[in-house]
Every structure is written in C-alpha cells, then in structure tokens.
Amino acid sequence: MFIFESIKFVPINMNAIVIQSDTKSLKIISELAKHLGGNVIKLNAEQLEDFTFGKMVKEAKTGKTVTRETIMEKLK
C-alpha cells in the first residue's frame, strides 16, 4: 500500500519530432538531443509504419457515421 502525502502536477509541454535518415546522421542527431536534455526513442520500421498509419487515420477522421450498405457498395 502506498500513501502519497503531497502530489504536485506540473504541466509539461510535450513535443516530438520524427526524423528518418541514415544511421550515421541519426546517431549524431540522437547524441545532440540527449546532450540538450531530450529523450530519444528509436522506432523500427513497423513502429514507424504504425505511427504514420495512426496519423493518417486521425487526419481523415470526420466524425460522420456511414451505413453498412454504403460501405459494401464502395467495396464492389
């Protein structure tokens, strides 16, 4: 059991960039980011693809609903 006497939440501005480059350049950029106090996370090809697909889905999302018949018609 944990007891927390005081918890202070500080708003954090979280920003990120994704950089695709050759291995040597990524190593230099990674070292610079770490030196500046940033966190570096390496993504493999599958993770990058998942991230990109999620971004595309989010951008295409309209909030509208579509009937099953409309979907089936488009698939023909």
What does this structure look like?
The structure is a single chain. The chain has helices at 23-35, 45-60, 68-75. The mean pLDDT is 83. The radius of gyration is 21 Å and the shape is elongated. It has 76 residues and is mostly helical.
Q: Percent of residues in helical segments?
A: 40-55%
The main sheet comes to:
none
SSE order in H/E notation?
HHH
Q: State Rg.
A: 21 Å
Rounded average pLDDT: 83
Low-confidence stretches: none
Number of strands: 0
SS-derived structural category: mainly alpha
Broad shape: elongated
End-to-end distance, in Å? 58 Å
Please report which band the strand proportion falls in: under 5%, 5-15%, 15-25%, 25-35%, 35-45% or over 45%: under 5%
Count of DSSP H/I helices: 3
Describe, in short, the structure shown.
The chain has 76 residues and is an all-alpha fold. It has three helices and no strands.
Q: Which characteristics define this entry?
A:
76 residues; mainly alpha; 3 helices; 0% strand
Task: Lay out the secondary structure.
Elements: H1 23-35, H2 45-60, H3 68-75
